[in-house]
Amino acid sequence: MMILASEISGDPLDRGYATMTAAEIADSLNAVNRPGLVPAEDVRRYLMLAGKWAFIADDAVNHATAETRRACLTLTSALESFEAFDLQDATILAVVSGGLDGLVSTGHLVVDDKAAILGLENNRQSRGQEIGAGRVTIGAVERARP
Q1: Same domain membership, residue 88 and residue 69
Q2: What domain range is 24 assigned to?
Q3: Confidence at residue 146, expressed as pLDDT on a 0 to 100 scale
Q4: Which residues, at least 6 apart from 146, have a Cβ–Cβ distance to it below 8 Å?
Q5: Separation CA 83–CA 99 (nearest Å)
Q6: Mean pLDDT of the 7-27 span
Q7: Contacts of 95-102 spanning 24+ positions with Cβ under 8 A
């Protein structure tokens, strides 16, 4: 309850809670419009549907140049090693972005692929989930309001 009360009274994202009804606040907190973890499975799915996964996986083992093998192996290893990527973490974002840049430079991806993969973090969770309140009800908002 304290988390929700703090969110509503502090309004850290300037959502305008002060002028909203309890129902509007609950709707705002439950809307899935916040960034979140990117499951490795979603990255693999994107690459498969774009027709790029097989080439990357094959070149991770069989390509003639070490640079290309390394770029491809970096991605395939990361997707096998991690369940999800928190692109809100600057260090993780830099590593993932750099790895994707490597694949752009080898011709395995284009800049639009990189943007699409990095964009997979969008609309992953609600603000309620993000702050640890889960699904927010009108009653919970009424009890949390000052």
Answers
A1: yes
A2: 2-34+124-144
A3: 73
A4: 5, 8, 9
A5: 17
A6: 97
A7: 99/71, 99/74, 99/75, 100/75, 102/70, 102/71, 102/74
